Amino acid sequence: QKKQLKTQTTCWDHPKMTELYQSLADLNNVRFSAYRTAMKIRRLQKALCLDLLDLSVAQNTFEQHKLTNNNQLLSVPDVINCLTSIYDGLEQEHKDLVNVPLCVDMCLNWLLNVYDTGRSGKIRVLSMKIGLLSLSKGHLEEKYKYLFSQVASAGDTCDQRQLGLLLHEAIQIPRQLGEVAAFGGSNIEPSVRSCFQHVCSHTNTHKHQRASYTHPE
């Protein structure tokens, strides 16, 4: 464990993470992909204690750590600092459920496995935000709004590139769970085109295609 943090390597799994992945593999017998993926994410969420993390608390923590530049690359110590703040807060409210060192190690392990497949020892701020917020506790509508805001321009609109960036980061979660095929694979371009075709059918007068946040149908 200490060697991992010192060298910032990302090819090593915490023993508890290995156990978790083995338990997730047991869910492969679930027939329907949507249920199977949901069960895996729920088990992962509870193992990382992110089901205890309020969306607003996560947002405040990002602000406290001045994580406003979503393109910024975070080193392993940077990620650990942010995760420690999050889990210290959770421990104060849920002493019997949260083991801070274990949770930090496990969550760091998971974030690197999902977003640092190139083994660089760094992940982007946007990646960490999307990973943590996707598994946090909160109303789905509020999650959609906050995630959209992370890629949107002034005026709460985004273009195809920005929406593609959001979907690319989000799809890494089911990809790492072995479930990406059920959601159209890693190529998010068809999904982006589909979204903007829907937008164009309502706003044909706009010269440049831009999407604004609306309640998902």
Automatic annotation (TrEMBL):
SUPFAM superfamilies: EF-hand. Residues 18-136, 140-202 form the EF-hand domain. Coiled coil: none annotated. It comes from the Eukaryota. One of its GO terms (biological process) is synaptic signaling. GO terms for cellular component: plasma membrane; synapse. InterPro entries: EF-hand-dom_pair, EF-hand_dom_typ1, EF-hand_dom_typ2, KCMF1/Dystrophin. This is Utrophin. It comes from Seriola lalandi dorsalis.
